[in-house]
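Session log. Operator J.P. requested a structure for one protein chain; no other inputs attached. Running the standard single-chain path with token output.
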Amino acid sequence: MVLLKIKKNDGGIIKLPSILRYPSKVQNIEGNNIPYRSCDHIENITNDLNTVGHWGYADPGAKYKNAIAGRNGSRKHPSTIRGYDFKYDGLIPDSAKVTSIIVQYSYRKLAYSAQISQTAHGSFSNPEIILSSLNLSKTGNAPPRNNFGEYEVQFNNLNLKGKDINTPNFDVKFDLPQNTSTNPCYIEMKYLRVIVVYTTGNYIPSISIEPNIVSYGEKVAVKCTMVETSGTKPSEEISANIKIITNGDCEITYDSPYYDWTTGIWRQATTNGKAELIFYVTPTSEGLFTITLDENNSGHSTKTTFVVEKPQLEVWDFYANNKEIEISTDTVTDLTYLNITLKTDAPLDLTLNLNFGGLTVKEPVPGLSNNILQISKSQWQKDDSGNIVFDTNIPLYSKSSGEHNIEMTSPLLLGVFTDKVKVNIPDSYKSYYSILNLSEFTLSNLEHGETYVFSALGRLLNASKIEKGLKNLRVCVVNGTTNSYTNQISVKDIWEELSCEFTYDASKPIYLIFYGNFIDFDYGTVEFGNLSLILKERYAGYEYPVLALSPKRYLLGDVGSTANLLLEPPELALSTKHFFEGFNWQGLENNNVLIHGIEITGDISVEESINLICGVGTLDDDELDYYLDSINITRNDTNFKFGGKFHNFGIPFPEINTILNDLRFFLQIDDAFDNVTQVQVEMKNVQITVYYSKNSGEDCDFYINGVSCKYFLISMSPETEIPRGANFDTEKYKIEGADGKYPIRVNVDDKKIKLKFRVYGDDFEESTEIMKYVSDYLYPERDTLDSPILKSISFFFAPEECFDYYIEDSIDAEAMVGGYDCEVNLIIPSGLSRNINPLRKSFAGTITTIGKVKPDIILYKLSEDESTSIQIIESESGQLMKLEGEFITNLPETTKIKIDCENRNVFYEKYSEWFKIDPNCISVDSSFFILDHHFNFENSINCKVTDVIYYEKGG
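Structure written below.
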């Protein structure tokens, strides 16, 4: 066997197996009609031993009878020679892919009229090489020359199988054309041989496991695959070894006739060059499992590793079903059952340590001994949803009163699980109670296993005292052996909520017990009302019945009749929300108008004081996000009003036009003064009014925080003074003996805008009303530290820039016919204007501004190397900020970080929100960047700066 080297495109070498063979049999083939010159001693071409076969002899004989004749002679054709039976059988696999066949030969021609070294005078064309059993032929690459030459003909890009070669019929024919010269000659051949280049099946093994981290006891599917990659795609048997190396224990299950687990050998015939084996591993302990797959013929090998961890363990239930029981005696036992439900990924042996406090286990529980509960793998079961669970109920009682704590711990559980049972001294008096069965409708809406809250109102009237006791002045939900007690009525003459939780067991009967005062006493009257059963997850305090003004149609318009609502105990506190929507704006929403305010009014009458709540929003808003306002209504009031001219209910003025079709508001009544006196409420003629003016289309004179002054009927006077450029506060230095003074420091000082404007309403009274809103419009608000929150003003002639300002003094307002001429000084602390929208640039850029800027810088972390910090470096100025410490180290790679240079804070992003980073993570020698002209953060370390955001400032 030899290796054939084939150049790859990338200059590498691919070595394919090849075999060179000589024919074991040769023969002359001569035509029937044309005389041929036979090759004598033909057997010499079946090796390379420097012996030759020859057409013609060195001694031509008389009249060249032993020579290849010239073209005019009769035996001018050398015979075709055929070599066959190359004995390839057993050397090349039948399934191998034959890619090339190379036919090699060595021969020369000789003349009788000259020395061998001289030119011979016989003349032949190139020979024809024929592989007749394969129907292939090709012209040779050289005719015979004067000296021995070694030649070959290649048949490439074949798609043959080894079985096509492994046959005695595989042959090579060498056909040399006739002599075209007039001179006779003879030819000698050293050998005729064949090289077969092939590729065998190249099987690549692979193993897939999903998932690669499992819990012991969890069944894992392992798929072993063998794929032939050479392109032969044979259907032959593969052989591979499979091994499992582990420091744990496991169980193996498989259902395949091709795998012998005792030997670890997998034998299987492939289909289109592919074989698969699936078996299952069930680890029975934690550890590291490695599976190896070795293909025995090619030597290819692969392995994969999966980690076996302890199963995840969850405590689904740990509670005593009866939170209150009575002391047990020798004759009477009052039980509570401790319910324990655990869920795991896979069955496991588990130890639970239980502390029952002053409670005693009533009867033997499997696996429970000395307050230790041993759970074996066999005790875990699958529930209806396929979860692996363990469930037990431990009956407990006590002969001592008080509150007893129950605790559960385990090495596989984090923390301590607790519950509490109150053991009461049995009541000395007889209980007075009524039993109420739930209606069929209620039962049909309860779901097994769900936790509910039972809630009711209760009060004790005309009683001199409240007698304590387990079964007195409360409600009990009885569901099988579970008794869930509400809290006890604790005050006299006042309605209070009584509630308890219980988990519904559909297999057990359920009913309610209402306990009045002990039968031995005549302590007043006990009343219960407004019973409700609500899913715990939806419970948010007692839900009062829907209390609505009725009939609703009387709320709209002045129709003479009113909508009524009676609030009486226990239906107290809030009424339902009455929503109003779908208004007919008569085309106003489609016109170019300025809306100056919204007003909501109505007529109302009450017997006692109430609060009226109004909420305003849109159909798309959550009602919890509505703008809320409230007013107090007394028995002397006949109407109510919310909002008015220049009141926007928190909706930006420019947006009111766009949301008119979706505008919605609600009214709600709150009787929060007592829960004893009933209240009658009457309401009608509820209206919404919108105040607007036609938009002339002229430019607005100025904007405050983007809101046009037109909404407040303001026009700016042309005498308004807006200084341009900057005021510089300059420190100068006088050099003795030199003329003049030289500036050594220049700072931008603040400046003032003297804003002059006119307020004009329909009349002087309205203008006076407007002035209240103008003050709110112009003056900045204050934060919790009473620092001003700057507002911005922009003007019609420069809409892209604004000035941030505050106001120190009052507005000078001079009354005039129909309105006021006003003047106020706006102080610009920065002394400069800024563009309204911030500029956003990459890590490098140029700032064109009078003043320096303090930007927001956005970057993300590149490395999680514990030995390095994050260094933000501005190369032009040399400013540096270093973030370091354990918190910075533990931030995940690609975490976004924001540096607020204006307010000197650093934030990181999580869950799409920004959280402040502890200032201790900022190195003491760090700078909060101040940029001027050029900046470049490209050389920052362990981070990538993506955005530099700032406002450019000008005069």
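Operator note: The CA atoms of residues 170 and 245 lie 50 Å apart.
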